[in-house]
Amino acid sequence: MRLLLVEDEPTLRAQLREGLMAAGYVVDEADNGRDAHFLGDTETFDAVVLDLGLPVLDGLTVLKRWRDAGRSMPVLILTARDQWNEKVAGIDAGADDYLTKPFHMEELLARVRALIRRASGQASPVLRCGPLALDTRSGRVTCDGQPVTLTSHEYKVLDYLMHRLGAVVSRSELTEHIYAQDFDRDSNTIEVFVGRLRKKLPPELIETVRGLGYRMAAPS
């Protein structure tokens, strides 16, 4: 899953980036509202963590412009302590959740997981497809109750497919969601990761839809 992190305070941004990447997310960053708006308007993200107090262009304006342009990615806003008016304005502008500074990294991660689940129509933190289970809280994958060891990229591909059960996902879409903007993206590597996953999982769980992409579906 690919996130956009928008925070102008360097130390906090570095701490958030480290925590999000440790949790398995691909992270793009911006330290001002102008760059944040551009990234959110031109790139594809599964969620955004957006500070409202930004230079150049404030976070509330950025959020309003995204929503006015039809950008629907889940947005978690960060607000200053006791600024209840910021929370109300943010929610009214289209934010999906808010977090008040200071906060614990574990709470931010839990809120991001919940936003991504809701956006993909998932209610439980444990995603299931036939005998396969992926716990989004721990990153643990099991098949028939037995642990499955995956590389970071294999996990990212599986995580994205599991969040979109039954939907056809193209190679280019997968590429957009498992690599950051500045990474040398190669959609051909997706075939390699899917091939490796099929060797570690029941192969029929990941279907190839000829000419379109892949679909995660439990056997009938």
Question: What does this 3D model show about the protein?
Answer:
- The structure is a single chain.
- The chain is α/β, with parallel strands linked by helices and 220 residues long.
- The protein folds into 2 domains: 2-119, Rossmann fold; 126-216, Arc Repressor Mutant, subunit A.
- Helix content is 41%, strand content 22%.
- The protein is built from 8 helices and 12 strands.
- The strands form 3 sheets. The protein has a 5-stranded parallel beta sheet with strand order 2-1-3-4-5, sandwiched between helices. Strands 6-7-8-9 form a 4-stranded antiparallel beta sheet, covered by helices on one side. Strands 10-12-11 form a 3-stranded antiparallel beta sheet.
- A hairpin with a 2-residue loop joins strand 6 (126-129) and strand 7.
- Helix 2 (33-42) runs parallel beside helix 3 and helix 6 packs across helix 8.
- The longest helix is centred in the middle third of the chain and has 15 residues, at 105-119.
- The chain is globular and about 50 Å long.
- The two termini are 28 Å apart.
- The mean pLDDT is 93.
- Residues 124-218 form the OmpR/PhoB-type domain.
- The modification 4-aspartylphosphate is found at residue 51.
- Pfam families: Response_reg, Trans_reg_C.
- Residues 2-116 form the Response regulatory domain.
- Residues 124-218 bind DNA.
